[in-house]
Design a protein that fits this description.
261 residues; alpha+beta; 5-stranded antiparallel beta sheet; 4-stranded antiparallel beta sheet; binds flavin-adenine dinucleotide
Length: 261
């Protein structure tokens, strides 16, 4: 709080140190939080799975609790960079950084996660859908610390994580985190979240509504794919035009719906 505005929290350093090297950021003070107790690890209690902010990508990738309860995150983690980066990069760092092409923010939207945020006035909780506000922009204030992500566990859900990148480990051109039920031959409570498709992760409400309560037929999947154009207007990047990204998002939507069904 004393240095708010001039201080940066340092976790795994896998994004922050790169921005320091490139002189994109030049805080007066770095506050290393890696020694703080109680911010690390995965815990399941009272139907809620909690991931501490300092839990590394590698710990998430290898956690039996994540594999059992949140297979979406277990599928997504190996897509983050390379092993050397996953060994030190943290869950909290990725969420606080809010890179629009990062894997966890889209997963957290699909899983309807809550983030626990601490400041001098106490703790508050913010839902993932209200947390990611824009390009590298979140609900975190400069004198606050992200403490954990919380995921309410419910039976009967299936997940699929898919992404396209030029090489494995690169940031995604586009990716999808899909989570929902498939009961009695129909989709229910479906959430489709996309990375690399906007300034922030995109929750595609219209595409999901197009197949909600319906079977996984070619016509219904095509309706969801068509509706995506109303959910997103992906910015072009160095390699892909906006139209290419929308096309790829549609391809991944078809694959993810088939996987859920
Ligand atoms: P840091 O770099 O230490 O911090 C990042 C930002 O978050 C800083 O602004 C810091 O102040 C803030 N911060 C950190 N922890 C907290 C907290 N608890 N509360 C509040 N603010 C906090 N990421 C992907 O998602 N997908 C990829 O494909 C990918 N590829 C990469 C490739 C390379 C070559 C590299 C170097 C990185 C890549 N990353 C990728 C980024 C990596 O996942 C980082 O680990 C992650 O984005 C940031 O986590 P960190 O712990 O390293 O945070």
């Amino acid at each position: 709080e004393r240095h708010a505005g001039d201080a940066k929290l340092l976790a795994g350093g896998q994004s922050l140190v790169a921005t320091l090297n490139l002189r994109l950021s030049s805080p007066g003070i770095l506050i290393d939080i890696t020694g703080l107790p109680g911010l690390s690890g995965v815990k399941v209690e009272n139907g809620v799975l909690r991931i501490g902010a300092l839990t590394t990508h590698r710990e998430i990738e290898m956690s039996p609790e994540i594999a059992e309860h949140l297979p979406l995150l277990a599928q997504a983690a190996p897509h983050i960079a390379h092993a050397a980066i996953r060994n030190v990069g943290t869950f909290g760092g990725s969420i606080a950084m809010a890179d629009p092409a990062a894997e966890y923010p889209a997963c957290c939207l699909a899983l309807d996660a809550q983030f626990v945020i601490a400041g001098r006035k106490g703790e508050r909780r913010v839902a993932a859908r209200a947390f990611f506000r824009g390009m590298y922009e979140t609900a975190l204030k400069s004198d606050e610390l992200l403490v954990a992500g919380e995921f309410r566990l419910a039976p009967g859900y299936a997940s699929a994580f898919l992404e396209l990148s030029r090489r494995h480990g690169d940031y995604a051109i586009v990716g999808i985190a899909a989570h929902g039920k498939f009961e009695g031959g129909c989709f229910a409570d479906l959430r489709l979240a996309y990375l690399g498709a906007g300034a922030a992760p995109v929750l595609a409400l219209r595409a999901a509504a197009a197949v909600e309560g319906k079977a996984c037929s070619a016509a219904n999947v095509a309706a969801a794919q068509a509706a995506l154009a109303k959910d997103m207007d992906p910015p072009a990047d160095l390699y892909s035009s906006s139209a290419t990204k929308l096309h790829l998002a549609r391809v991944l939507t078809g694959r993810a719906l088939a996987a859920l069904a």
